[in-house]
Amino acid sequence: MYTALRLQRKLKTELRAGTAEITVVAPDPYMTYQPFLPEAAAGNISPRHVVVPLRRVLDKCRIVIGEADRIDHAHRTATVTTLASPEDGTGAIRLTYDELVIAPGSISRTLPVPGLADYAIGFKTVEEAIGLRNHVIEQMDIASSTRDPAVRDAALTFVVVGGGYAGVEALAELEDMARYTARYYHNIRPEDLKWILVEASDRILPEVGEEMGRYAIRELRSRNIDVRLETRLDSCENRIAVLSDGARFPTRTVVWTAGVKPAPLLAATDLPLNERGRIECTAQLRVAGTDHAWAGGDAAAVPDLTSREKGKECAPNAQHAVRQAKVLAENVAAAVRGGEPVEYRHSYAGSVASLGLHKGVAHVYGRKLKGYPAWFMHRAYHLSRVPTFNRKARVLAEWTLAGLFKREIVSLGSLEHPRAEFEIAAGGGPPGKGPAPQDT
């Protein structure tokens, strides 16, 4: 989205004259600002303000909502299955292009853990974030209503796997929200909630440095969160989380955030991939060994020209992706006009992470911050980065109102099955909801 947004500005003359066309193929009609997912899950931001509608911001582009099944760059064609494909029976469509920008991002990297596919939930989409919020509050409702101690214990036990940004921020924000929500239950105390963070390495949040990582662990443990380092999830079958250190936790909630891998689309192209499945790129963000193909973001293996370490690549994170988008647009525009592309070069500035309301850690330009200053920096940075003034204003307004009023503790799990009530009213009997994996 960032690349297309800048490209439609750079090629304004060509687009107006009809000598150029920009086509954007995406599976969803919006771009998700993923750093705000934890706050959306905690109810601090409305889910619709975490996403940016493509048709509004890319008004000079042709938007095609669908999945790219295959890219044949040798013949400059992309095979795309649209939402209409199963309806009209015509099958996938073939799009031709002159210049290709491929940036499908990444998906959750899973492992063959027994029960994982049946019971776990990821944390990469706004749907998962809101579904997880609804699920956590629903488990508190179950615990408040049941007379079975085993059911109550499992409902109030939450296991998060992965100590990176996604896992730590999701756990911290949800724990903050659940602890606040507990005050409105007559028979649930904050100390009844059991939160467990499982990390295979010997540290969490490696991007903020070892010292800030240790502080984050102390902060989480001070809130009665069980942080288990050098530990793996061996199984979650039958709603029992079995850890490599021998611990067993009956639980109805397993959140999987243990890394990402390149999108499957990359394997369906004739573009060169490295050993980790990412597209090999030059410093100009051109796909190595090809012409008229460009890549950026999580899916691209881009040389880090600012590193002294030979052969090091840019980390697959938002900090690089947003800046690569700018260079991608500049280089594609240059290619269209017969100019010379430029190299991507960005020195890593540091990282910020939220640990819940008014709590955070940061390591930016060599300076280390923690607590409220780090949390404030986290919010200020991401407010400056979320695209469009419209979204900035709405997010800021929501934060301001949240500071004046009480938190929202509403669960809208029924949104996931909007026809359920009508099916019962229509005489269809108990509807076959097909509950989400984490609720089975």
TrEMBL record:
It is an enzyme of class 1 (oxidoreductase). GO terms for molecular function: NADH dehydrogenase activity. Transmembrane segments: none annotated. Keywords: FAD, Flavoprotein, NAD, Oxidoreductase. The keyword NAD applies. Its EC number is 1.6.99.-. Residues 14-325 form the FAD/NAD(P)-binding domain. It comes from the Bacteria. Belongs to the NADH dehydrogenase family. This is NADH dehydrogenase-like protein. It comes from Streptomyces hundungensis.
